[in-house]
């Protein structure tokens, strides 16, 4: 995959990961792959009816991308186990991160999950959750975290990363720079976290540092407003958090992904064009839009406009696509 042969449309589309309706390679999916040239799709329960159907869906979208001259697609899913698990029975059901007793449980989860995902053709898991929920806080993440201390979250989370990725499934650590202290849900509206950099560095960031050392493929940004770090933008739209903190200070060289831009935390406060402009200025690699609708096409058009109008954004955008293609060449 030689980036110098990519059209501007391909450069823009690689930076979009989209959800869709339906359980097969329908016209909506063909439009996303052929016209918007998207780099990836994400699967939800609405797209899944059984092992044979899921495998056929994954094979058909990859084959369609190939015959249309596109790179292989990221095919992602949220399969954390427990509260957030898109694959239901007959797939293995796990009690969830809080119920893990030790590192052996984490290894078992990752190996079994990776085997089931690769058999289907799913190549990216939006896991593990690397948030830390402190004791005594009514954390929104209480039922999804590995534990109450950065040490435990780091130990179990890195085991999941290692054994997913050793078994050909890209791991995405989330939700940077940490949402374990928050008590409100970004699906509904934007939570605020009044923690300064010293508080983050001594607690929330430690598992993400461990994930970076473990060469995690991707890191997902939260939609939380860390007002003492960036007084203007939530993490998912923040150059201070995505570029300065994660890239420059922490040295992360993998792909950076937003959380779903359809969530209330973003949709209630910003229009999609402003959102994309911020994403481009923050060197965020992948925009995640999980529901069918005009925002997917508008996002593509806004990315295309950015790389067409501005040489600096085009150059930085090419660096993003190189990061994406490096992962695709390694795993796909």
From TrEMBL:
Any Pfam family from its record, for instance, is: Glyco_hydro_3
Q: Which UniProt keywords apply?
A: Glycosidase, Hydrolase
Enzyme Commission number(s) of this protein:
3.2.1.52
> Glycoside hydrolase family 3 N-terminal domain location, by residue?
24-327
GO MF assignments = beta-N-acetylhexosaminidase activity
Which GO biological process annotations does it have?
Answer: carbohydrate metabolic process; peptidoglycan turnover
Q: List, alphabetically, the Gene3D superfamilies matched.
A: Glycoside hydrolase, family 3, N-terminal domain
Classification via SUPFAM superfamilies: (Trans)glycosidases
Q: Does the keyword Hydrolase apply?
A: yes
Q: Which PANTHER family has this protein been placed in?
A: BETA-HEXOSAMINIDASE (PTHR30480:SF13), BETA-HEXOSAMINIDASE-RELATED (PTHR30480)
* Family the entry assigns: Belongs to the glycosyl hydrolase 3 family.
| Protein name (database record) | beta-N-acetylhexosaminidase
Q: Which organism is it from?
A: Desulfonema magnum
Name the gene for this chain.
nagZ
